[in-house]
Structure formats: C-alpha cells, structure tokens
Design a protein that fits this description.
Immunoglobulin-like, six-stranded antiparallel beta sheet, five-stranded mixed beta sheet, 40 strands
Length: 538
C-alpha cells in the first residue's frame, strides 16, 4: 500500500535532520532514489543526496523537494529509470546539478511518458551549504522522455540532456530553453570541463563528444565525437577528465563509466584518445563515476556506482578504486572497494564530488596570480575587513583538491588592503590557487580560482577568449618592468578594473568574477610598451 502523504512528509522531514552542516570537501555525493519503505515505481520516487567520506563512512543526506515551496518546484525521479539521476559538479566547483520531474508523488502515469508541457522538467542546483534551488522548471525539455542530466558552469548558465529534444541551454529560473544542436536528440550525460561542453550518448554514431566550441548557448552547434573514441560500440554514461601530462595542454586522461564494458580509461596522445584498458566487468553495469587527483603523487581516486536496480526493489553499489598507473598507461586490474550497498526499495544512480566554498565576498576586490622567473606571486586587494581573521592561500594541480600554502593575518583596515605572497616552489604543470577566508565568527569563505597555465605560447596572448564569467583569464605578456599593470576597459573607454603586475612576471591570471557578460578591451602596459586585445565574457 502506498504511504500516506502525511507519513511520507514526516519521513522526509526526519531524513533531513542532521544535514544542515556544509558538505565536506573531498567527500562523495551519491544520488539515491526511494525511501526504502515501499517499492520503486515509474510514477515517481523521492530523491536523496547521500554524502560519504572517501572510505565509505556515511556523513549526511539531503532530501530534494517533494512539495512546492514558493518559487522552488518539486524534483522527483522515476524509481525504475536507470538512465536518470546523473549528477554533475559545476565548472567552478561550487554547485551540484541534477534534472528531474516537477510532479507530486502519488499520482498515476509513468513519468517518462509525460510531456514536459504538463509535467515540467525540474533542474536542481545545490551548493556547499546544502541550499537547494529548484526554481528552474522547463516546459520544452525531454518531453515524453527521461530528463537524464544537467550541468552548469557557474550556477547561472545551464545545459541539459535527456531522452528527447536534444541538448538544451538555459539560465537559472527559466521555464523554456534553447536547443543548441540537432546532431542528436537522445543524450545521456552533459558535463563541463576545461571550459568545454561534453555529451555522452549511445546513438548510432555517437558515444562521447564535444558540443560546439567553448560553452555554446545558441542553436546550430555540432557534436563531434572525441578523436579515437569508438563511435559504434559501447554504452557510456558519466565520465571524468584529469590533467596528468604537462606536455599536453588541458585534460589528457579520461575515465568513463560504461554499463556494458566497465570503467574505461583513455589518454590523449597526439590529439587522439588512446584506450588504456578497463576496470571491473561489463555485467556490473557501471553508470556513475567521479574522482580526484592526489597532488602529491598524481594517483587518481575514482568513485563509481554500479548494479543500479531497474525494478521496484531497486539496487546499486558505491565503489572506489585507485589508478596509480599515470598518463597513457594501462589501468591494469586495480582493487575495487565496496563502500555502500543500496537497501531494499532504494536505487543508486549518479555520483559527484562534493561542492566547495562560497562566492567571492563583497570585500575581496581582486585576486591574481603571476608567474615570474623565481616564483608564482599571489596578490589580492580587500576592503571593509570588519570581521575577517586571516587569509590562507591554497594550491592545487587539478582545481579539485587543495592544500594550504601560506597564511596571512587580516590587517583589519576599513579602507583598501593589499596582500602578496610567493609560491617559490610551484607544482609541475598547472597550478590552481584560491583564497580561504576565515572570519572571526568561525565562518569560512572561498574566492574563485585563478590558474597559471603551463605550456601556452609566448608573446602577448589572452586565454581563454571568450571566457566564462567568474572563471580565470590568463594573460601571457612580455617580462614585466616596474609599474606594469593590466587594465580592463569598456569598449567605450571607461576603465573598470586595474591589476598591478609584479616585476619580472611573464604570465598573470585574473578572475572575471567582477565582469558582466559582454565585450571589453584588455590593455597591458609596463611604461615602455602597450599591448591590447578585445575579450568576450559570456
């Protein structure tokens, strides 16, 4: 017998108890469908985000809404649709994104067969403090099909893919979206990496590819299969990229959860993705995968879901494994560790690393990283330090796992404050930096990341261009003389931002978080020469 509405509401309220603390960086977020008290059905089941430590210790659970609350809509999933419930982490690391249905529990009729006009497809955005935003409910996405996945670059711009209607672009709070490509209409997992949009599928000639260039927002985009990746076989779902080879710009190692072949490993060699073997077995039906790189030894820790149930009793396992083989080396036969098993009448779906941090505080005016011949120089400017205790510069080689580098006490001045530290021994390859800002009341905030990019050409270059709002702008320039600065102007000539460049710097990384979408002029000058270019912020 179906649970009464009152009993179910009480159950979900009890399940949410104890989940008010922030997600812990480095933990794993698992999508679980079903309460366990009744069988799963295609008419709708509640969705939970279960947090686990890397060793499999249960930490918390977050319940996605089953009732409308103001502008926030319902987000449930079909209990028996194994293609649904894929979850992604945003490009900036601050959000999780998941797609579902905006329909109350207990109604009749299979959810995947409903039209999106009658049952809008809800997009859920969840931040590190477990604030759930479900104000986005689309009436033109995955109509008469499953809403399988969604992703975001910065919490405001989103892409989604499902069983019908192709890849869609939209913004937070939208009710309609733009179909950006007709290459395929049946998609599985959309995700963003390296400021690019990727899509997995199992259509006739597409398996895993890049959609357009950059992060496209308009119609007419083309999906291109990753070079070397098989186009006519396999069944890929979630995937995760890493950067292991300093001589290859951008991500160069790829792991894919394939529900017919296991966990597949690939390396980018000379522009082609080369297969490096598989872990696990195809009959275990791997569909979810995420992971992190250990900056000390470059080992990859992977977390995956498998054996997700298709029937009313559910099923699924959360597992982990480590790949220490490195770039373009066989994954071999790593030990697969069982971390958690779904209880009866529950099903495991997608998995993602926990979101981190918060937005730039209003008192952090700038944060830059510059490369000189002797060190990386991190500099930041603040104002109105009413409650700030100290700043901790953190470093990472993958933009996911950070370690403390240096700590400075806040000066406490009400006007402008300038800080600078040096990283005299930067990591080999790419270096990501961020600020951990600790307040006197114990609260913690994080800046957006800045990145110093290895292996980009000399001269004067700005990369990437266009840039996503809130992400890093890397400026390659001549050796900076004294009083070198980078200035950003509107096209009408109004100065907006100015960043000092340390002496001897040859590369400076800025954050575009203070710039709205639009076109700007970036000028580098050191008193002897001026170089400029137009940049586009999307």
């Amino acid at each position: 017998m179906r649970l009464s509405t009152l009993l179910l509401s009480s159950l979900l309220l009890a399940a949410a108890t104890g989940s008010s603390q922030n997600y812990v960086e480095g933990n794993v977020i698992l999508v679980r469908v079903g309460t366990g008290l009744e069988g799963l059905t295609n008419t709708g089941s509640p969705v939970f985000l279960d947090e686990y430590s890397p060793t499999g210790t249960f930490v918390s659970q977050t319940v996605l809404p089953t009732t409308v609350n103001g502008a926030n809509q319902i987000l449930v999933l079909s209990g028996t649709a194994t293609t649904e419930g894929m979850i992604t982490r945003s490009l900036d690391g601050f959000y999780l994104t998941i797609a579902g249905y905006n329909r109350s529990l207990g109604l009749i009729g299979s959810l995947p067969t409903t039209t999106s006009a009658s049952v809008p497809r809800t997009i859920g955005r969840i931040d590190a403090s477990k604030v759930i935003n479900t104000t986005t409910a689309l009436t033109d996405f995955a109509s008469a099909g499953s809403p399988r996945s969604a992703t975001t670059s910065d919490g405001t711009k989103f892409w989604a893919g499902g069983g019908t209607n192709g890849i869609r672009y939209f913004t937070l709070g939208s009710t309609t979206s733009t179909q950006i490509s007709t290459t395929i209409t049946n998609a599985r997992v959309v995700n963003v990496a390296d400021n690019r949009l990727f899509v997995s599928s199992a259509t006739t000639t597409y398996r895993l590819g890049q959609m357009g260039t950059g992060l496209p927002e308009t119609a007419g985009q083309t999906l291109v299969n990753l070079p070397g990746y098989a186009t006519g076989s396999g069944s890929p779902y979630q995937y995760v990229f890493f950067d292991l080879n300093a001589t290859e710009p951008g991500p160069d190692v790829l792991f894919v959860a394939d529900d017919t072949q296991g966990i597949l490993k690939f390396s980018l060699v000379g522009g082609t993705w080369v297969a490096n073997g598989a872990a696990g077995i195809g009959t275990d039906t791997y569909r979810g995968i995420t992971g992190v790189k250990n900056p000390l030894n470059n080992e990859i820790s992977l977390f995956a879901t498998r054996k997700g149930g298709t029937g009313s009793t559910g099923g699924g396992e959360l597992v982990s494994l480590t790949d220490a083989s490195g770039y373009n080396a066989s994954i071999g036969t790593p030990t697969i560790n069982l971390l958690a098993t779904a209880s009866a009448n529950q099903a495991y779906r997608g998995v993602a690393m926990a979101p981190v941090g918060m937005f730039l505080p209003v008192d952090l005016l700038s944060f830059t990283a510059s490369k000189t011949s002797r060190a990386h120089v991190l500099a930041w400017t603040t104002a109105q330090e009413n409650n700030t205790s100290r700043y901790i510069v953190e470093r990472s080689n993958n933009g996911q796992v950070f370690t403390p580098l240096q700590t400075l006490a806040a000066t406490g001045n009400q006007l402008y404050n300038n800080y600078q530290v040096e990283d005299a021994k930067p990591l080999t390859g790419n270096n990501f930096y961020r600020l951990r800002i600790e307040d006197k009341d114990g609260s913690v905030r994080y800046s957006k990341m800045v990145r110093l990019q290895a292996n980009i050409s000399g001269g004067f270059n700005v990369w990437p261009n266009p840039v996503t709002a809130g992400s890093g702008i890397i400026v390659q320039h001549p050796v900076a003389k004294s009083k070198a600065v980078i200035t950003i102007y509107t096209l009408e000539g109004k100065m907006l931002l100015q960043y000092p460049v340390p002496a001897e710097a040859v590369q400076t990384s800025l954050n575009s978080g203070l710039l709205q979408a639009g076109l700007y002029r970036l000028l580098y000058t050191d008193g002897l020469q001026k170089m400029s270019t137009q940049i586009s912020v999307q």
